[in-house]
Amino acid sequence: MGGLGEIVVYSCYFGKPEDVNTVSMGDGVGYRRVMVTDDKDLCLSSVEILQDDLRPLGPVHASRRAKLMPHKYFPRANWCIYVDNRVSLKVSPVTLIQHAQAQFEWQDQPIQRMAFRHGVRRSVLEELDHLYAIGRISRSDWKMTNRLFMSAGVRSSDLTMNSILVQKMGDSVTDEFNERWYEVFLTLPSRDQLALPLVEHSTGLKLARSPLCYSEFVTWPAIPRRNRAVRLMQASDRKPRLFSLARIGYKIKRLRAAWDIQSAENERNTPVSSRKTKDNDDG
User: Fold this and answer.
1) Given this model, what pLDDT does residue 241 score?
2) Which of 46, 50, 133, 255 matches a 20 to 30 Å C-alpha distance to 13?
3) Rounded to an integer, what distance in angstroms lies between the CA atom of residue 151 and that of residue 129?
4) What is the DSSP track for 233-244?
5) Cα Rg for the chain, rounded, in angstroms?
6) Mean pLDDT throughout 77-98?
7) How many helices (H) and strands (E) does the chain have?
8) pLDDT, position 78
9) DSSP result, 135-174
10) What Pfam families does the entry give (predicted)?
11) Mean of all residue pLDDT scores within the chain
């Protein structure tokens, strides 16, 4: 396709988190479309189904294996484009690849993979705090990850949204970087955005970043987020007392998260020398 060799556009579908987005990977004209999944009954027209049973890994960790390490699945491909099930390509893969090629040349990056910057948050610490504030990660996971970032000196302000990733295949440095990314991801709460800055910080290597917004290339979200309020209202019709208790518990958690985050922000803004002095005084 366009003299670029074999192009694979792929997505991952594990644990049936939502309906399959049948148009996420474009029309498939001139390139392969592949769905990596643990669903043995899944069948999609003109889409290759690649079964990948990674038990005992849960769906979140299992789905990231192919996402982060395409060389394990498509060793003969020249280009791989990962698209999340919740987005839909609105340009041809060639257009996206040509854009990635320009970034590899302009940014002079040894890593032959491109991501898009997050549309709302800039830093990995903002993302971590946001996940805790909305209840997507536990308090213990938040505290552990925050300590890890602080001790490693990770203050990245170049957060990516990894719903779409473009990779030129056949580069061993990129493959090794991706393997390290997945290894670190397995040790952290369920967001590969959190693992990437740690790997970039420790290796000194970086994914290329597109200067454009991802919305130039994909529609997002193609599948709306589940409406939590509607689900809670449905629950309240059946069990009003339990619903009220759940709301109280949720509010308490939100208040505690806000307090924790404010305390963490104060510590992050404290010079290292002052933190060491305080630690010595406490000891």
Assistant:
1) 53
2) 133
3) 17
4) HHHHHH-HHHHH
5) 21
6) 97
7) 9, 9
8) 98
9) TSS-HHHHHHHHHHHHHHT------EEEEEEEEESS-HHH
10) TOD1_MUCI70
11) 87
